């Protein structure tokens, strides 16, 4: 346990202070004025104590360098180091999601690479699409530091390199699509493809960065043609609206017409079967009647006559029966008066 305490930076710092203080005592002249020298030593010891400890936030790790050489990574918490520039500590926020903005600026950003420089803000949004049209594209790249060693030592300026990689990839992806795809229907595909290519380049360059998300913001045509482009978009939206209304009306009317058509077809089939059955029944009845007529024509004829009268007479309200032997009838026969009334 004692060996571990002596090997820690805190124990080494105590040994160093004791050694310095002992050397000062031995080198001080006997009987001389020790005040200025002691004061100087106390100032140095205070400065050393002030610079001998540091705190690592909970979302970060500390990368320790001793005389410029990489020593290791320190977890969150309170730690001690060799003072007076012997150990150099760099705080790296490995658990914090960082972002870079292209084409616009968020006020109060602490990272100098988060927002574009004023002279580059408009330039980096100007892109040419695959159909040789111009578009102004704004986007955000969200990333995390996955490897602090690579982030600090493998790339000279990882923030600036990431901005260059992001802009290059975005120009490539936008240049493979038409202006309509970039502004309207192709946003999600652009984000997905850009994310994959940015992560591939970040891994290739050993930047120690993990790309979490690429999000497109405002995408507009250049200002001179923006009004015309808005009119085209409005016309396309009106076209889509009319198409949707036509499809809705189609979906409402066509099923009704289809159902009515099927109903008419079933009614026609039923009427056809009905007429066929009636015709077949009439044929069968006529054939049976013909057979009976051929056997006894007079009897059959009289029976048919009587049956016909039985069917016809009940439907006649006023009946006039005239004897066929009478030669004529009165010129005026008033049958509409009630009984006992005179004409």
Automatic annotation (TrEMBL):
Pfam families: Band_7 (PF01145). It is a single-pass membrane protein. Its main location: membrane. Residues 105-124 are annotated as: Disordered. CDD domains: SPFH_HflK. The keyword Protease applies. Belongs to the band 7/mec-2 family. HflK subfamily. This is Protein HflK.
